[in-house]
Write a structure and sequence with these properties.
This protein has 190 residues and is mainly beta. The chain has two domains: 97 residues, Elongation Factor Tu (Ef-tu), domain 3 (Beta Barrel), CATH 2.40.30.10; 78 residues, no CATH class. Helices cover 12% and strands 42% of the residues. The strands form three sheets. Strands 1-2-5-4-3-6 form a six-stranded antiparallel beta barrel. A three-stranded parallel beta sheet has the order 7-8-9. The chain is globular. The protein starts with a strand and ends with a strand. The protein binds flavin-adenine dinucleotide. Flavin-adenine dinucleotide binds next to strand 4, strand 5 and helix 1.
Length: 190
């Protein structure tokens, strides 16, 4: 883990209040579940770094390294608002990578990943590592659920449940409706 100054490659709003932040990254190697601590402003306000998970490793830098990392974040308060205003070409102070990552489920085992909202962030690199996995993703709304579309390019089954659909699922509390991208759905007790 080290502190470094990284160049911002892009910082794009992809969905209302949700941004993809690309950072130039050379080393050390990143693994699924790692997160970074970002100093969003110079000076003492805001004082604390903001933690954000690594969503994707960009390109291949050889020796298991990469050329950049992509973070995915939602603007919830002052720190993430300041971050959302940063432009490509600016630099940002980052500490990381931090976090223990995920245990290896073992050869031939299939993983079921369960994530809600921004909890989806560490799952992308995990799904890349674990073929034939399943992602159960809970989102606030059908609009937010499109975040899971990224996983369609991976060998990963996706089931999505949204709070707005669940509210209309015939009032059956304790049940949620998991919709597959094919439009088929199943109901499971949670
Ligand atoms: C290990 C780790 C990894 C994380 N990874 C990601 C990530 O990949 N993407 C991402 O978007 N977020 C992630 N978060 C959450 C992110 O760090 C916070 O949303 C961020 O620090 C908020 O900073 P802020 O200054 O914008 O909000 P603050 O000013 O600190 O908070 C403003 C208001 O928002 C509320 N708030 C704070 N955080 C959240 C939240 N997560 N959800 C809802 N309300 C909140 C606070 O209670 C407060 O009322 C992660 C958190 C941790 C601990």
């Amino acid at each position: 883990m080290e502190s470094m100054t990284l160049k911002i490659l892009y910082n794009k709003e992809v969905l209302s209040g949700h941004f993809r932040l690309g950072l130039e990254w050379k080393a050390p190697a990143i693994s699924a579940g790692n997160f970074l601590m970002l100093r969003v402003a110079e000076g003492l306000d805001p004082l604390l770094r903001r933690p954000l998970g690594v969503y994707k490793a960009l390109g291949s830098g050889g020796m298991g390294g990469c050329l950049g990392v992509e973070l995915l974040y939602r603007v919830v308060g002052r720190g993430t608002k300041i971050l959302s205003l940063k432009e490509p070409g600016e630099h940002i102070d980052v500490l990381g990578p931090l976090g223990n990552g995920f245990p290896d489920p073992g050869r031939g085992k299939k993983a079921v990943m369960v994530a809600g909202g921004m909890g989806i962030v560490p799952m992308y690199m995990l799904a890349e590592r674990l073929p034939s996995s399943t992602l159960l993703f809970g989102a606030r709304s059908s609009q937010e659920a499109v975040i899971a579309d990224d996983f369609k390019g991976l060998d990963c089954k996706i089931k999505v449940s949204t709070e707005d659909e669940r509210a209309t699922a015939r009032g059956r509390t304790g049940f949620t409706k998991w919709s597959a991208p094919t439009g088929r759905s199943s109901t499971a007790r949670i």
